[in-house]
Specification:
This is Trafficking protein particle complex subunit BET3. Keywords: Endoplasmic reticulum, ER-Golgi transport, Golgi apparatus, Transport. It holds the Pfam family TRAPP. It is found in: Endoplasmic reticulum; Golgi apparatus, cis-Golgi network. By secondary structure, the chain is of the alpha+beta class. It has one domain: Muramoyl-pentapeptide Carboxypeptidase, domain 2 (2-Layer Sandwich), CATH 3.30.1380. About 50% of the residues lie in helices and about 15% in strands. It is built from seven helices and four strands. The chain has a four-stranded antiparallel sheet with strand order 1-2-4-3, covered by helices on one side. Helix 1 packs parallel to helix 4. About 0% of the residues have low confidence.
Length: about 200
């Protein structure tokens, strides 16, 4: 019997192969690069550009999740650790054709009943991108490095938006980026809390 991790990898690969409306990778990278350049010209503030990229990503993520759920048939995850496996092996693979390495913090202590409900212990995972389709052909100028630009910050927004749609409020941030001279490109996803299912007005 296949482990869940292998099953998720197979699902992600099948979804990518069956996706008919693929965008040329070079065109995708160049279009995204042009968008970032335009934002830099418009705002002249790298911190604000980071915010705008995250905001755009959030809006994309809230829409992508519907397509993802409809096509993947992945059920509800049992814990946040499993969420990391699905995000890396199914989500990234099916949309970007990459599979980041997902790592989880080691257990710290035995969780209390309250912690178990909110998944506070080990409620984060790190994604290491061996390749980043957004960053192809990119070399950041010194000014952008000093200004603190996270070139691929749209990914943080996509993850935040998508997970919020499935009742998880998360914080997503870049820890490192090869474009900034780091050895790896890493994102950390931290669960803040599970959101309550909203009851429509009059249905209480």
């Amino acid at each position: 019997m296949a482990t869940p991790s292998k099953q998720y990898k197979a699902i992600g690969e099948d979804l990518w192969k069956s996706r008919t409306e693929k965008v040329n990778a070079e065109l995708f990278a160049l279009t995204y690069g042009a968008l970032v350049v335009q934002l830099i010209q418009d705002y002249e503030d790298y911190g604000e550009v980071n915010k705008q990229l995250e905001k755009m990503g959030y809006n994309i993520g809230t829409r992508l999740i519907e397509d993802f759920l409809a096509r993947s048939s992945v059920g509800r995850c049992s814990d946040f650790r499993e969420v990391g496996e699905v995000v890396a092996k199914v989500g990234f693979k099916s949309f970007l054709n990459i599979t980041p390495t997902v790592t989880h913090p080691p257990p710290t202590s035995r969780p209390t009943s309250v912690q178990r409900q909110t998944s506070v212990p080990n409620s984060s995972f790190t994604l290491t991108l061996d390749e980043n389709p957004l960053a192809e052909f990119v070399e950041l100028p010194e000014e952008a490095l000093e200004g603190g630009l996270w070139f691929s910050n749209v990914l943080c927004g996509v993850l935040r938006g998508a997970l919020e749609m499935v009742q998880m409020q998360v914080q997503v941030e870049f820890l490192s980026d090869v474009l900034r001279g780091d050895e790896t490109t890493e994102l950390r996803v931290t669960l803040l809390k599970y959101l309550e299912e909203e009851v429509p007005m009059g249905d209480e």
